[in-house]
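Project standup — Tuesday

K.O.: blocked on the structure for the chain from last sprint. Re-posting the sequence here as requested.
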Amino acid sequence: MHLTKNEEKILNGENGEVMKRLFRLLVRLGDIYGADKMIPVGSVQVAGVSYKSIGDPGMEFLEDMASKNAKVQVLTYLNPAGMDLEDWKKYGFPADFAKNQLRIMDAFRKMGIVVTATCTPYLAGNLPRFREHIAWSESSAVSFSNSVIGARTNREGGPSALAAAICGVTPNYGLHLWENRQPTIKVKVDVDLDFNSDFGSLGWYVGKQVKNKIPYFTGIKNANTDQLKALGAAMAASGAVALYHIEDLTPEADLAKSKGLESITVGKKELKSAYEKLNTGKKPDIVILGCPHASLREISVLAEKVKGKKLKKPVWICTSRMVKEAAERMGYNEIIAKAGGSVVADTCMVVSPIEQMGYKTTGVNSGKAANYLPGFCKQDVCYANIDDLVEGQL
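H.V.: unblocked you, prediction finished:
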């Protein structure tokens, strides 16, 4: 791999021990995957943020980095934390968990990382441009940035993303290269998709079938960005899809080579089967929406559904701090709170310790959450569209 003179200086330790160690990690990645050089990145999103995920070893590693004055060189955001960073007491997050989570956030802050903890950074001020090289970690954010925006990123691990943030570069391999962004399987959709949960079911089913291939969808007549977010998140969770194309909808679809591919068809039968397989529970103790983090539009939809009504069980909608503040200005948070629900920032059901908070069955409209909750949070899952989930609590 060709390194510039400046990069060779970093590797030789002339910019300090921390940068040397992290740059060495990037060089090894590049060697493994056959990269020809390093490329500058416009932004980074770092995973490995929740105390639930990284524990004491991860916390101590980050504090050590911060103590050595490691600083990021590009705009860097964080994945969701394990709790609402401001209102954790109100929602019942454990105090010992909160103490450690706040230590983690302080370490990130000292490194110059924006402590907006979200899996939808593109809705909270970190929006890459078409074909911009970035280094993002969270699977749904990687899928959205590659597929819907047309930016270019591999699915980085927490350490490699942090290394890219501090060094400002990433190895030039994988999805950074146009030849590796071509579709490898065609998915013919022969069913109407109305709810975000329909897109989640489609994504979950397709991810199971195609694993880490790059699907090219036909038959999806229209979809908003929330629905595309749900589709990509579910495919990344059940498979390892980091990029997809949709005919006439996504920015690189018209440029991609889609002829002569093997194909699969998804119809009503397959969609129904996905719903059935994602359902493992009967009555939810809590309904949690916003996986990936909700947009302002999704919060407004929930507010409209519960306006002037009373919920029997807790209903949370998870989002970024920035979107929550916009929803506050619009009066949506107050409407939801009066009904007995909550707009929860900085976290989500997957990375929070909900199993320690008395919940055993969670209602979701997210294919990604339904895929992860049984294993990560020991939850039974009620998977349904937002109408059925909310009406079931009124």
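K.O.: great, moving the ticket to review. The domain at 5-178 is CATH 3.30.499.10 (Aconitase; domain 3). The chain is about 40% helix and 15% strand.
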